């Protein structure tokens, strides 16, 4: 290749990648980029629609099922799991903390194994084993049983979300990532509605019959070698630390609310069954509507992601702050409305993940960054589960106040993250202009470097989405 492409550190592309990489890129480019015009927009829309019909429902069901498991502990709490298994003190909190500790410890080896194995077979095996463990929870008799089962659950679930993000990145373009991720992300709320209504029916039946049972594409199929040079690039990238810090700050209130949401609804004066019908169901239904709305907006305006995330944190912060200041012995429906605003705060947790396929290039770098992201997710959720302590029950004013403060910190952190992407894009654009490379040529070289498995840090033509 005659052109010498500048890298981030000023070296030419030939100094970054091996000569073989450049040859591979040229070969790939001849077979992909140059023949792309042969496909019409109508053909592409038809293909995308076919992928949507097959892939999204399956992802929705699988992701929703494992997300419902994360909140099942909260449902079990209001239906007596603490009493049935003799939990005392902070033992209930530890059932959530141990899950995320196991999730965190197994994240790195799980992601390494995921890259080495066939993605579909690996995910299917993990989901089947996870389902068996979830069924075993119904037979737990004490704290020790529950701790063992929750530990195994965390180990099995740790690769499900990273796999879904890689699948989204492999099957869809950058502009399509957010909408598709939010579509299968709505399964979190959707499956909780289905599970909540199912539990309501089971609970209602149990009340009437007290003597019965009590209620309770992956890179075109290629699997590349693990590249240690991309590991070092990952930890030199400011993105990695934004992912880590913002995810922890986001996961702290998420961990608290995931574990204690049903108990918070109950503290307003609702019965166990009313927490499902009047609390969880409208909460998750509203969440689905908001997720789809944001998905549509960001599909039309791709660089609106951070703005929508930051906007979502404002009502979540306001609702939690108001809830901590309102009297705890009256104004039941006002407090209900304030806690309902918390649903806005669940959006950034999923949208942070959409930056992984959009803004991280290099297969190994994606794997390592995903590991960092989910370690942060586990740390935040594990600590967050301890924010609502038994001595504060049933009002949990200190925990609710802490959640409000964390939303404010998250808002400021996201503003800095967005500024970094804008600054980096402008810096790269200036370097490219100084080299006399046209926008069209820069786009062509960027695609070529991406096909050669060059990371976003090494590929000066890579543009960050925000």
Summed up, what is this model?
With 466 residues, this protein is mostly helical. It has 19 helices and no strands.
Task: Give a count of the beta strands, DSSP E runs of length 2 or more.
Answer: 0
At CATH level 3, the topology of one domain is Growth Hormone, Chain: A
Helix-strand pattern, N to C? Answer: HHHHHHHHHHHHHHHHHHH
Query: How many individual helices?
Result: 19
Helical coverage, percent range = over 70%
CATH architecture of one domain: Up-down Bundle
What proportion strand?
under 5%
Structural class: mainly alpha
Keywords: Glycoprotein, Membrane, Transmembrane, Transmembrane helix, Transport
Organism: Cylindrodendrum hubeiense
GO cellular component, one term: membrane
Subcellular location: Membrane
Describe it.
75% of the residues lie in helices and 0% in strands. It starts with 12 loop residues before the first helix and ends in a 15-residue tail after the last helix. Helix 8 packs across helix 16. The N terminus is likely disordered. It is mainly α and 466 residues long. The protein has a domain of 324 residues: Up-down Bundle (Growth Hormone, Chain: A).
